[in-house]
Amino acid sequence: MRFLRSDSGYALVLTLLFMPVFVGMALLVIDISRGNNANSDLQAAADALALAGARELDGGVDSIDRAIAAMRNIDNTVSFLGQTDENAAIMLTFGAANDPDEYAVVFLSGLPASDDEAINFDLCVTNDTSSTTCATDQSEARFIFVRAQSEDLNPFFGLFFPGANPVADVPIAAEAVATYREVACQAPPLFMCNPVPTGATGYPSIVDAFNAGWFHARLIKLRLGSNTGNFGFLNLGDLLNVGNLQLPAYRQILTTEQELDGCNVTLDALETRTGQITSLDRWFNTRFGLYSQNQVRGIASDEIVRKGFVLQGNQCDGDVDDTFSDMVTDTSIDPGDFNTSNWRYDGDRIDAMGFPSNYSTEFSSGSVEVGGTTRPSGANGYVWPYDFYLGFNYPTQAASIASAIAPQAYPAGDIVRNPNLGTPSRHDVYAYERANVGTLGNNVRNSDPLVNSCSSARPSVRDGRYMYVAFADCDATPPTGTSVPLRIIAYGKFFLTTPVIDDVIAGEIVDLTNEGLGTTDLAFRDEAFLVR
Length: 532
Description:
With 532 residues, this protein is an alpha+beta fold. The protein has two domains: 10-181, no CATH class; 186-530, no CATH class. 21% of the residues lie in helices and 19% in strands. The chain has helices spanning 2-5, 10-54, 63-71, 206-211, 248-254, 280-285, 320-323, 386-393, 398-404, 426-435, 437-440, and strands at residues 75-79, 89-93, 103-108, 124-125, 143-148, 174-185, 190-193, 220-223, 231-233, 263-266, 301-302, 343-345, 348-350, 361-365, 368-371, 460-461, 466-472, 488-496, 504-512, 524-530. The strands form five sheets. An eight-stranded mixed β-sheet has the order 9-7-17-18-19-8-15-14. Strands 3, 4, 5, 6, 10 and 20 form a six-stranded antiparallel β-sheet that branches. It has a two-stranded antiparallel ribbon with strand order 1-2. Residues 238-247 and 318-347 have low confidence and may be disordered.
């Protein structure tokens, strides 16, 4: 009580003595808060810039150029670095000159296995061909490192001691590392080697060639076998929880009996599945309404199943290898072959017509064959017997159907390099048949039905003739069957034109990811994410 009644004034003296400490501590707390806020702003800016750039690192030959263009569209601010309202919020922009005071960006081909290890900047990749320290192959860029740093923090703490301020400006920066991957959503575990030799199309990449329409109406044939070749399976590990290709999970996916759930197949480091593949034709051919007697009944076919076969006996239990073993592949089709009463299915005379081959072959190497653009005399300007197909299957409607079918348009159509543009592909005809299945019906001979004629126990589904595949650069990383990661250059959609005969898969590439036609958006998802 004596302390409360004291009027000597020493409490005021103590308060005045400790006032600088209290004020200094308050200013220090404010500076720490300002620093944390600025660091958060810089971290958000670095993250945003890294993610924007990483989204373009898809392995393309111009990926860094596209990444730089994307990063120039990102604006952010950092606040509270200065002491006045004039520089309270500082704009951060990744400009053409890449101002090192705001952003430092390095594209990398790899990262250390552990986050505890420092980044090896010797693995840098640049779009500057004059660089002497970095690789210049933009397709090798897989990661992007961003360091964001603007002005230094000008602290308030030193204002209280203007004559003896030992506190210098404090540099504040933030770093981020991001990469890109594509994820498959409900897509089969398949890969296909780039069917065209590197540079043979005259375009920088398979995506550029596709967008120019180079693949339009070109039939691609891939020969299968016991060894991994131009077409094969991907190793999905625990996703399917199977140990070999013969178990039901793979069969169910390849027959459209079941799809993968969710978007959980990472496609940036794919490995091939080793082991022999058997019964592949039986699995695929259920899509055309062809079933081996040993196959599980009730598997759906595609809605459109015309295949160029005259089925013998039970239409639902035909095994291609057994019933149609005499059908051989012969690409030397001539318009004169169609002047008889029966059409010749790739060389065999039968009373049915499916989608035929191109008149010519442009590329043929090993187990892959790509149709050419040569038009023989009498072919009416088509590179495959399009008019004969319509005339045979729709003899009274051929002219009206031909005028109604609209050929696929492409973002950068180049009719000089592919004179097929402007004429329908097999996929264009299929799309028309599917859209008008209710009015077209079957062909007049009724020997090769347009739709699935099996019982209700064998339903039909839309899109059963499509396969989603990963296109691999097999020149860079040959698939050896030893689970070596493949270099993936694109993902896309492959249209099956005919059943698998003599271990040959035939079809057309109808869309690719990475700025294609957009029909694969639901099957593949792009993801850019931070790794550091």
